[in-house]
Amino acid sequence: MRASERAYLTLLEDILEWRLPPGTVLAEVEQSERLGVSRTPLREALGRLAAEGLTAPHSGRGVVVTELSLDHADELFELREALECKAASLAARRGNPLVFSQLQKEFSSAAVLVNGDEAAKGNYYSLVQRLDDAIDQSMDNSYLLQSLKSLRVHLVRIRRLAKDNPERLLASAMEHANIAGAIAAGDAQLAAACTTVHLNQSLNHLKSTQHQTERTAS
Amino acid sequence: MRASERAYLTLLEDILEWRLPPGTVLAEVEQSERLGVSRTPLREALGRLAAEGLTAPHSGRGVVVTELSLDHADELFELREALECKAASLAARRGNPLVFSQLQKEFSSAAVLVNGDEAAKGNYYSLVQRLDDAIDQSMDNSYLLQSLKSLRVHLVRIRRLAKDNPERLLASAMEHANIAGAIAAGDAQLAAACTTVHLNQSLNHLKSTQHQTERTAS
DNA sequence: TTTTCCTTTCTTGTATACACTGAGTGTTGA
DNA sequence: TCAACACTCAGTGTATACAAGAAAGGAAAA
Description:
Two copies of one chain form a homodimer. By secondary structure, chain A is mainly α. Chain A folds into two domains: 3-65, Winged helix-like DNA-binding domain superfamily/Winged helix DNA-binding domain (Arc Repressor Mutant, subunit A), CATH 1.10.10.10; 70-217, GntR ligand-binding domain-like (Four Helix Bundle (Hemerythrin (Met), subunit A)), CATH 1.20.120. Chain A is built from ten helices and three strands. Chain A has helices at residues 3-16, 28-35, 39-51, 73-94, 97-108, 111-114, 118-139, 142-159, 166-184, 188-217; strands at 25-26, 55-57, 63-65. A three-stranded antiparallel β-sheet of chain A has the order 1-3-2. In chain A, strand 2 (55-57) and strand 3 form a beta hairpin. In chain A, helix 4 crosses helix 7. The longest helix of chain A is centred in the last third of the chain and has 30 residues, at 188-217. Chain A is globular and about 55 Å long. The mean pLDDT of chain A is 93. Chain A binds chain B through residues 40, 43-44, 47-48, 51-53, 72, 75-76, 78-79, 81-83, 85-86, 90, 141-144, 146-147, 150-151, 154, and chain B through 40, 43-44, 47-48, 51-53, 72, 75-76, 78-79, 81-83, 85-86, 90, 141-144, 146-147, 150-151, 154. The structure holds a DNA duplex.
């Protein structure tokens, strides 16, 4: 693997996992020594991160990890609604109904997963991943896919701020089942509506986490 | 100005103006000599172009300017509808009505512009630009703005394939007036609907250009 | 004659040295 | 004591040399 690729993947993971929290200054020599590559591939990695909006220039001197807090959740979810509703609509028009009715079934019977142990919860998350993948493939639009991917990087980062609980996961599973069902039925409008509902519920849950944190802190 | 910035801007313009058409191979030494910079800043420029989807790796040997033809218009406009409808909705909720009712008036009286000479047509295009800018500012969402900007790069490129005529420009002006009016009225749903109408008309016009070209070629 | 393998050469990937800019600090004058 | 100027230095921006890898061409064998 190329050195620039290794540096990029390492930095990306460090940022997404909050090991490099917002505001962290990324000096070139420092990071190149830490990652064991020279400055040239490191600069390429930093350039890719900047293009994704994960880093930003810092008063003319170096780059910093961009701010991200629950304050950004509203903006992020507005974009997410635009992209994912469109994606669900297109999938409803173009996807294979069998794939999505199968996914719907799995989500409907996901109650056992979200109440189980960590491994079972991992299974649930991979099920969500499979629905996303199926939509990505069915919508058959490379530009929309590209936009979604760059959005998801930020979503991964912000998701770490939320604590999920069994009740929310169960509700989420039902919402996902509805989305899959609407796509399987070929109903574009319903698929978009189900996605809107799901995203609003997710956002509300995310914000309720914030209130808890504020109360805990005070 | 930095050498990498110059190289980036020059290559960007060359690609958008079709001086570097799709499929053109961009060899590093060749381009660095052409632009009078060394390979290091040139590589940074190429990296930025690749992040925007304007270039893509070419079977292990250099990068090529990505394909773009009217075949991509459908995909591009699907993403555009998702983003611009959302943008118009948000602007309707958050924008200053006075700004948009002023823009509506200007679009309504734009008939004299589109029938005029080249300079007058330039005025019309800058009016469209002002509406876009007003929406960008009013929607107040940096993530959505970022997505829109990366989309617009491709739209600039594909717009060169379309020939505009006075009838289309006049209709376009009316459609823009409707969008501005809906935003001024604070009607998010109507603003989105007007945007959908406008984009469908634009896409149809773009495709009719294609048919003419095909008939001309045969 | 065709296919396969080897060699050559061109292009990219990486490291490093040097130049330049900008921020911080210390000193000097009012 | 404060402000302004100059100097230092850390850190980025650029150039270039070198290494590694892939494609193309030719030669040899089937």
